[in-house]
């Protein structure tokens, strides 16, 4: 007798078995369900699965014969995943022997100090000062630098900063009034950018 290719998928309540028997005649197919055994016969082709990994309910199990495959649906007696179709596993429905109580209690695991862990994480996430990392603070650090530069500058330096920044559209900032006062400050967009005057 020729064996048949088959595969399955399962949920906790059911297991669906696909038997690839192309063109199977529903009149010729013979299927037998038993609590721990399944058999399929179609002429010379057969498939026997014994012992099934878990117990099935033969009354609630059924099948359909299609053009390409026969789909068999096993109703599991006990919920849970089998992982495979066949195998020697203890029957969960059989009366389980009562386990003896352990002689000594299991040692207690030390408790985690969650406050300590939280404090450690918060310490590691403290903001870094610009003295520790020159790139710390991003735009805020840059803005603080320019505010300080402007506040500490003399009147000519402030005038140069304002004129160069306004005339260049924010692309240049100069502190040299002698150079800036001579002419209009040229627009110098960043590399890869193009300056366009809008609204004119």
From TrEMBL:
Q: Where is the composition biased (Low complexity)?
A: 89-103
* Residue span, CS domain: 1-86
Per the record, the domain of life is: Eukaryota
In this protein, which residues make up the domain named SGS?
Answer: 103-200
Compositionally skewed regions (Basic and acidic residues) per UniProt: 178-200
Q: Entry's CDD domains?
A: p23_CS_SGT1_like
State what protein this is by name. Answer: SGS-domain-containing protein
**Which species expresses this protein natively?**
Trametes coccinea (strain BRFM310) (Pycnoporus coccineus)
């Amino acid at each position: 007798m020729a064996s048949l290719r088959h595969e399955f998928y399962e949920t906790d309540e059911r297991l669906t078995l696909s038997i690839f028997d192309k063109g199977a005649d529903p009149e010729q197919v013979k299927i037998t369900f038993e609590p721990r055994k399944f058999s399929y016969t179609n002429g010379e082709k057969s498939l026997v699965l014994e012992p099934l990994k878990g117990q099935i309910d033969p009354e609630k199990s059924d099948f359909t014969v299609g053009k390409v495959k026969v789909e068999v649906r096993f109703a599991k007696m006990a919920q849970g995943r089998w992982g495979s179709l066949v195998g020697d596993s203890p029957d969960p429905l059989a009366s389980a022997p009562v386990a003896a109580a352990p002689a000594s209690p299991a040692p207690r695991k030390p408790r985690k100090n969650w406050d300590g862990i939280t404090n450690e994480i918060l310490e590691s996430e403290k903001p870094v000062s610009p003295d520790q990392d020159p790139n710390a603070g991003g735009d805020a650090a840059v803005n603080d630098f320019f505010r300080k530069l402007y506040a500490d500058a003399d009147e000519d330096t402030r005038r140069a900063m304002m004129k160069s920044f306004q005339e260049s559209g924010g692309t240049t900032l100069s502190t040299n009034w002698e150079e800036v006062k001579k002419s209009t400050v040229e627009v110098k967009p960043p590399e890869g950018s193009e300056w366009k005057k809008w609204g004119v």
